[in-house]
Amino acid sequence: MIEFQQASVTYPSGVTALRNINLRIRKGEFVFLVGPSGQGKSTALKLIYREEKASIGRVLVEGHDVGRLNAGGVARLRRRMGVVFQDFRLLEYKTVRENLIFAMQVVDTPHAIIRKRVNELLEQVGLAERAKAFPLQLSGGEQQRLCIARALINHPPLLLADEPTGNLDPETSRDIIKLLEAINTKGTTVIMATHDRDIVDKMRKRVISVSNGCVIADQLESGYYHDDFDESGSDFNMPEV
């Protein structure tokens, strides 16, 4: 479903965010991208939804070289995926229900379909009783649930989550992960960037470790933190692959 082919990203400032990344992520996988902040996780996600382009190499999504897409192609690509951000990016002047309705209206979804789909998602993420609330009236966990619902509104086969538990307490974080796991169980591919070692270690999913812009480990169904993790967060002392 997703393939990085010797992909590197160097910004105009001269900073290299990713170096020669080669990866394949299959349809239906749940994958963690892990590593300390500033090591390239978010840049990797941005390449997938084409907020950034590879300076060298290619990124393929469903067989399409996303770096070669025109504006219309990028729009179609993004309709095939949902993105969940750490900072929520909700419309504060719209209610929970209105945030979801707006996400469907911008792609010209018929009204009858909008109503049914919004009701389904509110139930799925546990926000049916909060439908008339505004984002600032929600807890952090509720806001993140709304973000996930918005990302799923158009049935995307791929969900990207960038530090979705970064600002949440441990119990709320576990609830969010359970929701993402349930979504994955229904067939959606999930790629989550995180530095939360407890969540990763308990989930037993595929773990791709990134440090200094390089993939330094790729492990299937294996928690890996424990003694290999530097508590200072400065590095992941993992063997190179």
Strand content bin: 15-25%
Instruction: Please write the string of helix (H) and strand (E) elements.
Output: EEEHEEHEHHHEHEHEE
* Structural class by sheet pairing and helices: alpha/beta
State the helicity in percent bands: 25-40%
Which radius of gyration do the C-alpha atoms yield? Answer: 18 Å
Q: What does the largest sheet look like?
A: 6 strands, mixed
What is the CA–CA distance across the termini? 22 Å
Spatial order of the strands in the main sheet? Answer: 6-7-8-3-9-10
The count of helical stretches stands at 7
- Globally, the shape reads globular
Number of strands: 10
- On the 0 to 100 scale, the average pLDDT is 88
Q: List the uncertain runs.
A: 224-241
Give the SSE map:
Elements: E1 2-10, E2 16-25, E3 30-34, H1 41-48, E4 56-61, E5 64-65, H2 71-79, E6 81-84, H3 96-105, H4 111-124, H5 140-152, E7 158-162, H6 170-185, E8 189-194, H7 197-203, E9 206-211, E10 214-219
Parallel strand pairs: 3-8, 3-9, 6-7, 7-8
Antiparallel strand pairs: 1-2, 1-4, 4-5, 9-10
